[in-house]
Amino acid sequence: MDAAAEIEALRREIREHERLYYVLDQPRISDADFDALMNRLKELEQRHAELITPDSPTQRVGGAPREGFVKLRHSSPMMSLDNAFSRADLADFDRRVREGLAKSQAGHALDAPIEYVAELKLDGLSLAVHYEQGRMVRAITRGDGETGEDVTENMRTVRSLPLATEAATRQRLGLPDRFEVRGEVLMPHRAFNALNAEREKAGLALFANPRNAAAGSVRVLDPRITAARRLLFFAYFLLVEGRPPLPEHSQALQALAELGFEVNPNWKVVEGLPGAWAYIEHWENRRSELPYETDGVVFKVNHVAWQERLGATSKFPRWAIAYKFAARQGVTQLLDIGTQVGRTGTITPVAILAPIALGGVTVTRATLHNEDEIRRLGLMIGDYVTVERSGDVIPHVLNVVRERRPADAREFQMPRRCPVCGGHAVREEGEAAWRCVNADCPAQLKETLQHFAHRDVMHIDGLGPAMVDQLVAHPVTTDGKPVRSIADLYHLDRARLVGLERMGEKSADNLLAQIEQSKRNDLDRVIAGLGIRYVGERTAKLLAEHFGDLDALARASADELQQVAEVGPNIAASIATYFAEPANRKLIERLRAAGLRFRQSRPQRQGPMPLAGMKLVLTGTLPHWSREEATRKIEAAGGQVVGSVSKKTNFVVAGDDPGSKLDKARQLGVRVIGESELQAMLARK
Ligand code: IVH
């Protein structure tokens, strides 16, 4: 195959995988295989620069951050839609359409049912995308409807928006080289939940709902941030010089799909009011099953000639309407604030609410995320609050209705002890979450056991999730209790194990033999097995080598810990906190008694340290890494993450929404890099 053909084949294959991944959420190949395809394409394009086209998947990478957005005028106003909230509102709309047509169009009978196209009303932000010579040249936000902002660079990174369309398809459809597509950009629930979870970890303000998150992601100055957020674009209008080029709206939707745009597949041509109503009823019950948010149904008169006869008011077209589903927001009283402990020990405050029906579901609890969120909301127990529930998104509190605050409203304090085990709760500097530091906390137990047994840690085969579930649920230890800590693994009772579901004598013996064998692991594996935050296998090795035995490590002060290569203040603090917890000290004693190795025997070799001795400052949200991850990687590469920018700072790593640290860096002339540059530095040997 010649290079041109291979490049074309690769592009087609990559586009297909991007669609599977970003649009359908059903990847068929691993990330590594995908990267391999992309790398091969990049390599070929590098060798044959003349074959690079602006629509190649390699060209999606966003350019450099910009200073601001340019305002651009729309080809024709982007109007909004009139709303219907009831069957009667919808009937009024249908009557107005029929009357309007009967008056304006000779021969249209007043009682003839109208053909409408029913579409889901997607809850995102609308956008106009312009194509010239079949290629995407501009994307403009709706703005005030007359003018919007130029977000072309950002939208180039959105995989569901084609960068180019095929000439043959345009020809078949009779479409000129210049056309415009309007549609909705949205963020699917899963991407939204993941984004907020990451922001929460990084101590950043959370997005209130997927729509705000989508809008925030389209309107960032750095296109690399848009690229990292999983946005979807659904097309719903095709325009040539501001007008629909095809006689029917349904034909336009089909044409858009043929051109390679994502068209929401749930549209349907319906007949008159009964058809419209049946569509509403169908989706009212099923909207929670969709992976993105829809807040209603849009009905559009199918015949474009009729649309034009009906015209528009100053605000809305008369030929379309949005029927809004029952609100999923409402006001209710906050009865109390409870707490919940996650598998990694994170203590999350939870709002206990007076029951309220939101979009057909009774809601009694809502997440409050963390202490800062409670402060940001200015929340007191007894307050009336607006609660929102959208699709798969966990209900959350939007705001406090201050005027209704009762006289006996009281402040809430995060507990200083874990509500599950009574262990100490700590909130480390730079973190939003309080967490329980007792490694034996039952809430963390299953995760801890599995980590301990992992092949790269203590390597106990046969201790998978199903087995762990059984061990923590049944009396299996020699003193007739379920497993409550990793130390209990060394006190399992064979006879009791044999009694477990799907556990024969042989598998019990195997498991016990594996556990016995794990005692021979070196100290670094034991340290890694403790599950101390930030202490992975590599750090564990360095610690084992430096201190030589576990007691010395346990006694070390934060300063002493920082003497270890690759251990910065965050890792040091985490280790010191771990060994200060009495419950953890008890655990260590039990592990010693069980016969685990507390002294390191093998000498270790050190790997590359590309950031040795460097001081870095993190600011804003990075596209892929949480603050914690970035810190871990930097410290593992010998660098140190410091809190404020000074002349001694080597680099400032800036992401989305950077704070004043970025200004300071510019003032002092400290070099500012992004995540990708950091990544490149870390990869250096
Ligand atoms: S048609 C003049 N179709 O709803 C026609 N809009 O309230 C205007 N929207 O600004 C747009 N899904 O952001 C149309 N299938 C759909 C839609 C949709 C969501 C949004 C759009 C628009 C707003 C109007």
What's the short story on this structure?
With 685 residues, the chain is an alpha+beta fold.
Q: CATH first level of the largest domain: which class?
A: Alpha Beta
Specify the structural class: alpha+beta
Question: Which radius of gyration do the C-alpha atoms yield?
Answer: 30 Å
Relative helix content: 25-40%
Percentage beta strand: 15-25%
Basic shape:
globular
- The appropriate CATH architecture of the largest domain is 2-Layer Sandwich
What's the name of the CATH homologous superfamily of the largest domain? DNA ligase/mRNA capping enzyme
Report the sheet with the most strands, covering strand number, pairing sense and barrel closure: 7 strands, antiparallel
At the fold tier of CATH, the topology name of the largest domain is D-amino Acid Aminotransferase, Chain A, domain 1
Mean pLDDT across the residues is 89
Bound molecules: 2-(butylsulfanyl)adenosine
